[in-house]
Amino acid sequence: MTLDDFLTLTRNSLRQPDLALRQLQSLDLPMQTRWMALVLVVALSSLLAGMAARMFPVPVETGLSLLTRQPLIMAGAQLFGMALTAWLIANVGRAFGGRGDFADALLVVAWIEFLLVVVQLAQVVLMGVSPLFASAMGMAIIFMLVWLTVNMVKALHGFESAILVFLGVLGTALLTTIFLSVLAGALGLLPEIPAEVQP
């Protein structure tokens, strides 16, 4: 893929998701290559998060800031999350009459994550120039993530309504988060909340 191809694919992803999906599918990548692409973008995302944490440390430690200090664990968590996302996109979509499969869902997830890495890299650079503008850009990144996810899922499954897809994505994300939280609690994987010290 040349730089011109990449720019065209990026532009189409934002303007014509149906066409962008067909371009991705036309690459005819084997399943092993799709997994390698996902692993690569996860590695880039983890490195970027670690670099940002070192350049701009937060005054108050949070679970996310602690996770960025353990890049292997963070990369593993991201890889699991994205693979699960691709599985949910494929199977929940098909349950509602969609035609997409896991292989293409994996390709879509890897491509969206790659675009996010590129935009977040620009955000990190902007943090050193204008933190306020970089923070505003963070909101734009969230909007871009939602837009890409909804419209790429819509194109993947051949759905007609972006609003229904958005509601489906939102509902699936909420139910999955609740299920994983309950599972993690049952397995003792969640950190204990310290009891309040009595005066």
Automatic annotation (TrEMBL):
Q: Which keywords describe this protein according to UniProt?
A: Membrane, Transmembrane, Transmembrane helix
Which cellular component, as a GO term, is one annotated location? Answer: membrane
Q: How does it sit in the membrane?
A: Multi-pass membrane protein
List residues of the Yip1 domain: 13-180
Q: Which InterPro entries match?
A: Yip1_dom
Record has Phosphoprotein as a keyword:
no
Q: Which domain of life is it from?
A: Bacteria
Chain segments annotated as coiled-coil in the UniProt record: none
The answer, when asked if Transmembrane helix is one of the entry's keywords, is: yes
Membrane-spanning regions, if any?
Answer: 35-53, 73-93, 105-126, 132-150, 162-190
Q: Please name one Pfam family that this protein belongs to.
A: Yip1
Cellular compartments annotated: Membrane
Q: What is this protein called?
A: Yip1 domain-containing protein
Q: In which organism is this protein found?
A: Paracoccus isoporae
**Lineage of the organism:** Bacteria, Pseudomonadati, Pseudomonadota, Alphaproteobacteria, Rhodobacterales
